[in-house]
């Protein structure tokens, strides 16, 4: 047996990375040019990132590296890998999650060699100038196919290329997408000049690829379920027939109409509702058709319980104030009512979708062959995950459900801590079966699996690749696809296969294409622009904390505005002592009329600032909600006439940012000014007491309430020691130290303590 050889590098631990020619070749091409690495799951994308990081840290020893991952568990996973391979002090490899406070992050940014984080955290720190990317020598983006649209990867990459002295970007993905335009958008957004592609069949990769056996398991719906299917199809045809009569579709054959087409029709009607009186009625029919299409998918691919839960959730939603009338109309439809009765009767009669029995059979066969097998069962829907989990537990299997964080009606999600615990127990063998939704598809190091079961199929090539990637990494694996004959299961399977072929073909074409290098004169122009921007007087805008994640703030940062986050009681943006700006999207403006927030806010901003401004962002105030047009016009007139509050209309967040930038520049360059932070008029003694504490560093309203509940009076708080203060949950020693410094330091008018100094 040939002895293993390992990569030798001063920044890599001895015997930490085995020599593999394809990894070394890819690394060599990525150390000096922005690159996208497309490599199947399990073939070492993270190890390649580690090698590129080692080379860059050696080239620039006073620099640091940032590794971005879409989720906290992924960031933690990559951190463990980097600690195991990089020859740097483990204390210099830090992970930023929502649990690390902004103040702590400022300190850690200064000392870190490698920072692993979710992109939203780094985006916020860039926006608020908690980090300067000047010395960042490498930006790694895991699941780089996400770098499109408004995803945080795009903003961080843009700012990184702008700020860094020696920038280098490395994008990693197993599945970059199908559409050529999307792949090219990723490359453009990340400044990619080089694409490295390997597939399972690449000659240099082939020796390391483990065999994955694919089994197609077909099942057929019983006649009792087919009867319900027929009823739902008739209900759908009724709605489609109307759309055909109005020439929105060519045929009402349900096999030729997709949910995507129906959503497009819905969007088209939304634009026409102002001029077309019948648009509202048609929109209701389209919405009903979309819901019935979803109901059919659940029946065909998931089962009776999932469909019953869907109708139950619709019923609960119909009881809420402001619920669309169309939901109630759909539930009262004779055919839907009949279908619901039959569903209930079949469930009571113990009729099940045939997938359940087939899934149990596959699990039983696998565990009889290999008792310690690890198995993951993928399904799109939580309801199905719950049912499968319940069924397997009833059979005595060691199984756990693995879902996302979001809480849904009657279904509490898993926290990131709970997710991490489940993964660890799966690795240890406490559970040997996971029933997972899409949260387990992307990148997570969920132990090597012997069997992956697709309880349903998805039409996404990316998700199919990610599901398959849970097996066949270190040893041969097996994938079982359970497909209901003659249903969407089959259509989705073939759709995903086609997209996967197209993706491989497209990425090869793009990789071969010679991307034009940046011209020397363009480089000089960029440097000139940066120089001119640095020469301009710095413009500062105070931004309410709730606005920090908005596209408006991203736009302001791109315009080189310094953002100062504040917990503002009045307004969203402050640009001078006299000018404050309240921003409302069209939807929020209407909602503020409904919940009666609008006029108290208008009164507050006009009473506190000499020159307040209201920006309404978006189009079409009328028709969005069931608010009479006269009420909307009345509100607008009252704002301008009664309160004398100027209104500015903008089309989108980008235009809003440009407007705020122009106002701020005018205020701060044409006259000497400062920014005045107004406080909301306190309504009670309690509010005043909380207000005093929220003026202290690191204290928000929640902590202020905890402190007052603990010590009862402000006097008691101000006389407590650092140790006593730090015992308040969430306060900690550092915040207590800063608070005592503010309370005990002598006041000097010529050296007023600033936010930064405390």
Task: Identify the notable features of this structure and list them briefly.
6-stranded parallel sheet, Rossmann fold, 5 domains, alpha/beta, about 750 residues, disordered C terminus, 7-stranded parallel sheet, phosphoenolpyruvate carboxylase, domain 3
Whole-number mean pLDDT: 86
Q: In terms of structural class, how would the helical and strand content be classed?
A: alpha/beta
Overall number of strands: 19
Assess the beta-strand content as a share of residues.
5-15%
Which word captures the global form? globular
Structural summary, described in words:
With 758 residues, the protein is α/β, with parallel strands linked by helices. Helices cover 49% and strands 13% of the residues. The termini are far apart. The model is unreliable at 514-535 and 751-758 (pLDDT under 50).
């Amino acid at each position: 047996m040939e002895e293993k050889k390992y990569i030798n590098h001063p920044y890599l631990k001895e015997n930490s990375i085995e020599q593999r020619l394809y990894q070394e070749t890819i690394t060599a091409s990525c150390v000096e040019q922005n690159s996208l690495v497309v490599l199947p799951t399990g073939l070492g994308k993270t190890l390649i990132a580690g090698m590129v990081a080692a080379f860059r840290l050696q080239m620039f020893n006073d620099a640091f590296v940032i590794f971005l991952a879409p989720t906290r568990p992924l960031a933690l996973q990559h951190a463990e890998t980097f600690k195991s391979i990089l020859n740097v002090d483990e204390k210099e490899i830090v992970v930023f999650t929502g649990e690390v406070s902004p103040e702590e992050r400022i300190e850690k940014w200064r000392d870190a060699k490698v920072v692993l984080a979710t992109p939203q955290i780094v985006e916020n720190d860039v926006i608020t100038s908690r980090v300067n990317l000047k010395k960042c020598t490498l930006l790694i983006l895991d699941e780089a196919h996400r770098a499109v649209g408004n995803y945080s990867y795009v903003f961080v990459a843009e700012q990184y290329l702008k700020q860094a002295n020696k920038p280098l970007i490395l994008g990693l993905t197993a599945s970059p997408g199908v559409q050529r335009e999307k792949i090219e958008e990723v490359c453009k957004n990340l400044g990619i000049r080089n694409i490295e592609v390997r597939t399972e069949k690449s000659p240099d990769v082939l020796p390391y690829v483990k065999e994955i056996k694919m089994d197609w398991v077909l099942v057929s719906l019983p006649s009792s379920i087919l009867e319900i299917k027929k009823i739902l199809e008739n209900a759908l045809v009724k709605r489609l027939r109307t759309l055909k009569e109005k020439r929105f579709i060519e045929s009402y054959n349900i096999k030729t109409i997709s949910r995507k087409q129906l959503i497009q029709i819905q969007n088209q009607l939304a634009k026409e509702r102002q001029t077309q009186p019948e648009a509202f009625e048609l929109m209701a029919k389209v919405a009903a058709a979309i819901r019935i299409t979803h109901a059919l998918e659940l029946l065909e691919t998931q089962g009776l319980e999932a469909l019953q839960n869907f109708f139950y959730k619709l019923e609960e939603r119909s009881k809420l104030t402001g619920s669309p009338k169309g939901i109630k109309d759909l539930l009262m439809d004779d055919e839907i009512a009949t279908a619901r009765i039959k569903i209930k009767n079949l469930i009571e009669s113990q009729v099940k979708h045939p997938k359940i029995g087939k899934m149990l059979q596959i699990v039983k066969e696998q565990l009889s062959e290999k008792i310690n097998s690890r198995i993951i069962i993928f399904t799109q829907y939580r309801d199905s995950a719950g049912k499968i989990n319940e069924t397997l537990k009833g059979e005595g299997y060691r199984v756990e459900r693995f879902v996302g964080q979001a809480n849904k009606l009657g279904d509490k999600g898993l926290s990131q801590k709970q997710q991490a615990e489940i993964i660890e127990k799966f690795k240890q063998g406490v559970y040997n079966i996971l029933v997972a939704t899409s949260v387990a598809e992307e990148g997570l190091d969920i132990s090597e699996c012997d069997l992956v079961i697709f309880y349903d199929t998805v039409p996404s090539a990316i998700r199919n690749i990610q599901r398959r990637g849970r097996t066949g990494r270190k040893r041969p694996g097996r994938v079982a696809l359970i497909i209901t004959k003659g249903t969407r299961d089959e259509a989705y399977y073939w759709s995903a296969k086609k997209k996967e072929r197209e993706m491989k073909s497209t990425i090869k074409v793009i990789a071969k294409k010679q991307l034009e290098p940046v011209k020397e004169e363009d480089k000089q122009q960029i440097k000139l622009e940066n120089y001119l921007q640095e020469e301009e007087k710095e413009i500062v805008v105070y931004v309410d904390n709730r606005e920090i994640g908005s596209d408006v703030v991203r736009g302001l940062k791109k315009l080189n505005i310094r953002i100062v986050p504040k917990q503002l009681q009045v307004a969203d943006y402050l640009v001078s002592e006299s000018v404050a700006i309240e921003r409302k999207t069209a939807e929020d403006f209407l909602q503020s009329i409904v919940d009666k927030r609008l006029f108290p806010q208008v009164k507050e901003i006009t009473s506190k600032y000499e020159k307040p401004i209201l920006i309404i962002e978006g189009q079409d105030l009328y028709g969005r909600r069931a608010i009479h047009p006269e009420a909307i016009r009345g509100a607008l007139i009252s704002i301008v006439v009664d309160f004398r509050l100027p209104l500015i209309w903008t089309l989108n967040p980008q235009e809003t940012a440009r407007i705020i930038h122009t106002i701020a520049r005018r205020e701060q360059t044409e006259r000497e000014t400062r920014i005045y932070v107004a406080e909301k008029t306190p309504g009670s003694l309690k509010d005043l007491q909380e207000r005093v504490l929220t003026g202290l560093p690191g204290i928000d309203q929640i902590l202020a309430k905890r402190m007052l509940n603990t010590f009862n009076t402000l006097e008691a708080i101000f006389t407590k020691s650092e140790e006593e203060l730090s015992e308040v949950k969430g306060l900690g020693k550092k915040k207590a130290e800063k608070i005592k410094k503010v309370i005990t330091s002598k006041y000097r008018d010529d050296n007023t303590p600033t936010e930064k100094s405390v």
